[in-house]
Structures are given as C-alpha cells and as structure tokens.
Amino acid sequence: MAIDYGDARTGVAVSDATGMLAGFTTVIHSRREEQVLDELARLIGEHGVDELVMGFPRNMDGTEGSRGELYRAFAAKLGERTGMEVRLWDERRTTIEAHQILHAGGKKMKNHKKTVDAVAATLILEGYLTRKRLERK
Q1: Which CATH number belongs to the domain containing residue 72 in this structure?
Q2: What is the pLDDT of residues 103-123, one digit of tens each?
Q3: How far apart are CA 117 and CA 97, in angstroms?
Q4: Domain count, the chain
Q5: I want to staple 35 with a disulfide (CB 3.0 to 4.6 A). Which of 8, 10, 12, 30 is the partner?
Q6: Residues 6+ apart with CB under 8 A from 110
Q7: Closest CA to 53 of 137, 127, 116, 133
Q8: Torsion over CA of 95, 82, 42 and 4, rounded to 10 degrees?
Q9: Among residues 8, 9, 7, 37, which one has the least CA distance to residue 119?
Q10: Which domain holds residue 51?
Q11: DSSP string for 12-68
Q12: Cα 6 from chain centroid?
C-alpha cells in the first residue's frame, strides 16, 4: 500500500495480488489525523496489506523538505497503530505528474482535487514496486 499523506486529503493505492500494479485506489477526505489513521488501518486489514510505503517530501535538490518532521511523526504513528514498518519514499514531482496525467486524460483542473491524491499514491506505489523488481534482478 502506498500513501500520499496530506493536510486535507490522503491518497491511497494498493497493489494487485501480483505486486505488479496498483489495483485499488481511494482518497481519504479528512484533516483529522486519528480518522486518517483509523481508515488506513481498516484498508490495510481489508486488503491484506503486508507492506507500507509513504510519500516523503523532499526538496528538488534532495534535501529533506520543511514538512519532513510532520511526515516522519505520522509514519511513526501509523507504524505503531498497525505494527508494520512504514517505508518513506521520495515523492518529488508525484503531485505534478498526477495533475499532468489527469489533464492529459481530459479532466478539468477544478476536478483534479477529487482524484489527484489517489493518482499521486499510485505513482508512489508504482515507483516502489519497480524498485523492488529491479533489486531482485
């Protein structure tokens, strides 16, 4: 499962059974951390998730972004809640790319808010899965 954590919305993408592609996506619409944690825990159980990867904000030069500590704290709480390790994944450009994908698909900018976080989570998941496949070779 990949998570694109945000202030108002959190995108989620879960791979298919083969671990090759994103098979399920959703957006959690909440600003309340506890509600987001509860919903993530529910989705983890519902989908039989065995790995967690969460987007982590970095600056374009690779340094840790200003929101890094907030994301580390949330990842630690999610890990405590689920008993799972949360891998932090460089999320540079995922939101920009998600907007580009939606735009190319004919979505109007005003409609992007509804799905952009799920698309960003999918990009995080696909990047992570690709890295895992390359490391196995």
Answers
A1: 3.30.420.140
A2: 676 666 655 566 778 878 888
A3: 11
A4: 1
A5: 30
A6: none
A7: 127
A8: 0
A9: 9
A10: 2-136
A11: EEEE-TTSSSEEEEEEEE-S-HHHHHHHHHHHHHHHT---EEEEE-B-TTSSBPTTH
A12: 9
Q: Residue 99: CB partners within 8 Å, gap ≥ 6?
A: 109, 112, 116
Structure tokens at 107: 């979505």
CA distances from 136 to 17, 41, 74, 126, 129 (A): 18, 29, 29, 15, 11
Would you state the structure tokens that stand for residue 44, as one six-digit string? 């983890």
CA 42 to CA 4: how far, in whole Å? 16
Taking the C-alpha atoms of residue 85 and residue 128, their distance in angstroms, rounded to an integer, is 15
Lowest mean pLDDT among 9-23, 40-54, 68-82, 103-117: 103-117
Digit-coded pLDDT (tens) for 46-56:
999 999 999 99
Q: Hey, what are 21's tokens?
A: 């592609």
9-82-84-130 Cα dihedral, nearest 10 degrees: -30
Amino acid type, 106: G
